[in-house]
Amino acid sequence: MAGAEALVELGRPRARYAVIGEPTSLRPVRQHKSILMESIVVQGRSGHSSDPSLGNSALEAMHAVIGRLLQYREQLQREHVNPGFAVSVPTLNLGCIHGGDNPNRICGRCELHFDARLLPGMSNGQVRAELAAIAAQVGAERGIDITLHQLIHGVEAFAEREDSALVDAARQLTGHSPEAVAFATEAPYLQSLGMETLVLGPGAVAQAHQPDEYLALDTLEPFLQVLRGLIRRFCLHPGH
Fold it and tell me: How far apart (Å, rounded) are the C-alpha atoms in residues 52 and 162?
């Protein structure tokens, strides 16, 4: 997403409409979730397992952190629901964890990696601040150093108006109502430049990020027809 961020910083391009090419099975997408990838690091104190007072277990502290994260996830899912998405609530996935080096040593360091996908209207920054507060609170309770770190910069959630001219044109050209997806794109960046923005493209996301990732050739011409229709509507005959 660095290229899209650079465009925002430059204030370019100066356009009214943008189509983000992603594998949407030629179905217009006007909403997507955000993406956060974070790590929580617990820095404890190692020692011999025969005497717990010799150390401060990072694994045990991480156990407490995970419990709070799952409670926080439940809270988010109670407070935020969007029925336009197949998974109608924000998600928080605990992806991988590493800690300790020997069964007879108190664990001195433990690190958890996780991702969160938030709904339109939710703020990555606010959720990050709340996650950092959870880490700090558990750290204070257990007398141990716990910190939150960004694994990626992250992308905000996106939503274009359902009655926008671009969404309406894509609906007519594809024959499909606008949908919502759980993956993130450059759409919020271009939208921030004042453009009506849509995600639309050939291929299916089920084939993306696979060992045999591919784009079926027979989906290209239908997509080109949609693009030609959008160009005629907004570039050759604007206002009609």
Answer: 59
Q: Exposure pattern of 172-204 as b/e (b: 16+ CB <10 Å)?
A: ebbebebbbbebbbbbbbbbebebbbbbbbbbb
Token pair recorded at residue 136: 């700090």
DSSP letters spanning 52-75: GGG-B-HHHHHHHHHHHHHHHHHH
Query: What's the token pair of residue 217?
Result: 């050739």
Q: Where are the alpha helices (DSSP H) in 80-214?
A: 124-142, 165-174, 187-192
Residue 236: band (very low, low, confident or very high) from pLDDT cuts 50, 70, 90: confident
Per residue in 197-230, pLDDT tens?
999 999 888 877 788 888 889 999 999 999 999 9
Q: What angle do CA 65, 85, 34 make, to 5 degrees?
A: 50
pLDDT tens-digit readout, 163-184: 999 999 999 999 999 999 999 9
CA atoms within 13 A on the CB side of 221: 2
